[in-house]
Structures
1.
Amino acid sequence: AQRVTQPEKLLSVFKGAPVELKCNYSYSGSPELFWYVQYSRQRLQLLLRHISRESIKGFTADLNKGETSFHLKKPFAQEEDSAMYYCALSGNTGFQKLVFGTGTRLLVSP
Amino acid sequence: DAGVIQSPRHEVTEMGQEVTLRCKPISGHDYLFWYRQTMMRGLELLIYFNNNVPIDDSGMPEDRFSAKMPNASFSTLKIQPSEPRDSAVYFCATLRAGHFNYGYTFGSGTRLTVV
């Protein structure tokens, strides 16, 4: 069964501090992993896909198959990064539904 | 493209009343999903459609919930009768077949409050 675990409900940091939002997954096959972001009372937006290996808004995430993790990182947090972050997983063969973690709220204080 | 359009944005209703949430997908997107978001449980997939056909409704909480997609341009999620524990934000999301690696496109959601 697919499962995504985000152990932290809330992560509070000061502006300029490094950020790491944790995501662990359970999946028997080869996964596709995503990070979605939801700013206050807005729609969910795709932030990162592991397959693209990109950096968006200074955020990066590396898939670690040995540790079954896909942690989201940013070296220097900004106040505008405050939002809800969801890690999500699907399989990589054809269509498979997306399973979300419970989310982590990031609060960046000045 | 206007994206995924949901209506209404906010709905306040009394317990026992029928509630209908609406979603207009992006043209050409073959998959449509209904999610429920709560503080306690995060995002839960309720049901999804492919080419207007319901594929998996295992996430629908109970018989009070029903969803339809009469055509490629419109879907509804109905709750009858509504209960206070149904209060949540309901999101619709869509996906184009073959673009599975690009992630879903979400609507702005409907914030439902049942009093």
2.
Amino acid sequence: DGGITQSPKYLFRKEGQNVTLSCEQNLNHDAMYWYRQDPGQGLRLIYYSQIVNDFQKGDIAEGYSVSREKKESFPLTVTSAQKNPTAFYLCASSMGRSNYGYTFGSGTRLTVV
Amino acid sequence: AQRVTQPEKLLSVFKGAPVELKCNYSYSGSPELFWYVQYSRQRLQLLLRHISRESIKGFTADLNKGETSFHLKKPFAQEEDSAMYYCALSNTGFQKLVFGTGTRLLVSP
């Protein structure tokens, strides 16, 4: 069954800790993205990657880091430098050009306690 | 800079009434516009693309470059249309999508 898998579904983090969100796709898509979804603010782009071993900052990259060592995987690390990390995080992938549309994962809800 | 504006946070209509979800954009180049939908407890998914000029689930959207708008329309709303709708824009060369803040459509019986 092809698609994007995000894990875990829920994640709790203590202040000052780094945490890594997983995103895996088996769609053979070249491009992958991380968005943050907050009520009333829509989706904001954190990082994106168009090919393996390359990625670019989005609009709100501060306090986050990513890697793209494999085509299938694009993990997101929320560092302690992120001042307001509690949010819903969405991963997406696409064939490369946006006119094909994105395929989204089911999301990870991160809560800082 | 690319920007997408969805002025309505909530749009509430009765079943059978026409629906128009507004979307305005700002972009200096030739944009690609999309509508995405998120039904309750489901993933965000592509509804339609302006480039394909398609009608999905009775919804249509026309790109109006003069008014920089891409409003989503449906002549007769159904209860199953209740969802969160996001308008999104990409530049011609693609690199990323910029989303609006979304409009929640509530269709009452």
